[in-house]
Amino acid sequence: xxxxxxxxxxxxxxxxxxxxxxxxxxxxxxxxxxxxxxxxxxxxxxxxxxxxxxxxxxxxxxxxxxxxxxxxxxxxxxxxxxxx
Length: 84
What we know:
Layout: H1 12-36, H2 40-50
């Protein structure tokens, strides 16, 4: 017989526990990042402190420029004859 020995294959339990550990670590890292992120209020205060106040005029429907012309494209073609 052959003296070749196969490498030990990890069992299903060890693979499942490794995957569970990696997924749990990912969620812990994501949760920590969400908790460390500054709040929207603090971000808005920081932005307001650095930027000047700008007034934005909102356009009504009548202020929107309409195009002067309307173009219509007609496609004309002949059908090929039926091949029997």
